[in-house]
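Suppose you are handed a protein chain with no further information: no name, no annotation, nothing but its sequence. What can you learn? This example shows the usual starting point.
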Amino acid sequence: MSLRHILIALGDPLVELQVAPNGLEVDVRDVVIMDPDDPPDVAQGDLALLIGARGRAALPLIRAAGRAKAAAVAVKESSQALEQAAMDAGVALLEVRPEVRWGHLESLAKGVLTTTTDDGEVLGDLFALAQTIATLTGGIVSIEDTASRVLAYSRSSDEVDELRRLSILGRQGPEPYLKMLREWGVYNLLRSGEEVVRIDERPELGIRRRIAVGIHAGRQPLGTIWVQEGDQPLTDQAERALLGAARVTAPHLIQQRNQPTSRFRENLLAALLTGRMDAATVAGQIGADPKKPAAVVVFAVRSAEGDRSEHELRRAEMTGLISVHAAAYRRSALVSESGGRTYVLLPDLAPNAQLLSLTREIVTTARRHLHTAVQAAVGSTVSTLDDAQISRQEAERVLDAMARDLDAEVATLADVRSQVLVSEILALLQDNPRIRDPRIDALDPELAKSLLTYLDALGDVRAAADRLHVHPNTLRYRLKRIDLDLDDPLVRLIAQLQLRMR
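A reasonable first move is to predict its three-dimensional structure. Written in structure tokens, the prediction is:
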């Protein structure tokens, strides 16, 4: 397949061509990863993704790709030096959008490449099929698997809405909208049959009208085709065309199911935790008992200064480490990555299962061997696999609080319940200025720190002064300068919350 074909399919949302010394008709045969820490493993016709290398660190990889006669290399940040190196090496240079995840780009780029059956019959690629569906329906098309991962999409000059934009970038759509889809039973309808489902627009969420249909092999759901309405209404034949398109798309997705089992297991966990697949079905696939207790643990690599691609690489290594530990603990464990976090489902647990030791072992191993700081939240053990979402939501609440203002490495809701509740209240205050006291927001840093220390000391001036390393009279003078009635317990309550937010 030519480089031109791949660029047209992926389009501006993901990559942009910088230089092409041999033109755009060069053949692309495979998509490979080039890591600066590993020996170059690239061949003629490869599209090489340069992970973990930016600036001058990418120069040796570009030259190595050129010597191997690769078709193109992709970097997260282009420069004049990299472009000149690519020209000299005779290899095309692509710049990847900063917000695009490497794993997502690799999956989509491989999806563009033409697939063939064992007898050599060309099935064509999903991107071309998405474009055909767009022509027939007059809309903007995306094809997703059962875990709502975008496999292919159509090009469009029309305005795309927020849900489509985030889906293409590999991120989750607006949660209020996804919640409504679940409440309306949209996912159940798409999973259960071939009926075309109509979804009204939601202007307040930036979501346009769309129609969708499930893709099936017999009774087995394979994915979904979504058609967003663009600047013009969908065609009169859109629903009929969409039904036919679902039947044509099924063989393509069946072919993709020959990919490694790990991707399939990731999809299972994502589908379970978002309510798109029932517990009994997932349990049957992984050999677990859906009636036994289960729990979800969520991990996140702590944010750090440095190269974004390096952070992605550390996160990928972290996911591999977690997978090994989880599989050793439970053969039926599932691991999946979403939104920069790694989710672990541990089924078939004993009612008194102790997961903290396992989680601490993983965090310690990551710090020691990967030199990566990680935070982990352990959801409560729920009675059956049906309640796995409850465990996940609890773990996410704890991890959200840890990311905002908790320095712990491993925690459960029972360990930090008060901190989690306060953290969630502070998040509401942060997002809603109208429910804050402007007098407190206006305090200078010295007065704000003094007042919070005084309130934390329960009004003990001497204890607060000791913590601030000032004379008690100095603290009394500062408190008198504050235009608040500190004898009022409600004033003290809102002041303490608001100051803690600062």
